[in-house]
Amino acid sequence: MDSTDQLILRELSRNGRMTMKELGEKVHLTGQATAARVLKLEEAGIIDGYTIRVSKEKLGYIVHAFVTAIMHEPRHQKFLDELDRRQDTVSRYFKTSGEGCYLIECHFPTHQELDDFLNDISEFASYKVTIAIQQYGQ
């Protein structure tokens, strides 16, 4: 991967909907040469998909929380299944090392719904909650 490939990735990260011609103009290649490079990045698994960013706030999910879960027991599958069932409020989650077992990023319309979620997961884990006040960057 060279500096042109890195520039292609940076530009696609900003706007994955641009045409290969537009992308080529930004990286100083023809549209055809750019498309060939993008295809190679896809085939190598470096680009593994294209997506959109959805504003949870504009959808009414104004409480943005990070929950650190500390599991009660070594078997976690029921807990993970519960997180998967809550795709409307659980944006993503990570297995972690350090203070907790999982870091869960969540969005809720109200504090009451956050509280309901915490009550539900308390069957599986103790938790610590951090509420986001302001987001910077992507």
UniProtKB/TrEMBL annotation:
SUPFAM superfamilies: Dimeric alpha+beta barrel, Winged helix' DNA-binding domain. The lineage of its organism: Bacteria, Bacillati, Bacillota, Bacilli, Bacillales. SMART domains: HTH_ASNC. PROSITE patterns: HTH_ASNC_2 (PS50956). This is AsnC family transcriptional regulator. Keywords: DNA-binding, Transcription, Transcription regulation. InterPro entries: AsnC-type_HTH_dom, Dimeric_a/b-barrel, Tscrpt_reg_AsnC-like, Tscrpt_reg_AsnC/Lrp_C, WH-like_DNA-bd_sf, WH_DNA-bd_sf. Residues 1-62 form the HTH asnC-type domain. GO terms for biological process: response to amino acid. One of its GO terms (cellular component) is cytosol. GO terms for molecular function: sequence-specific DNA binding. It comes from Planococcus citreus.
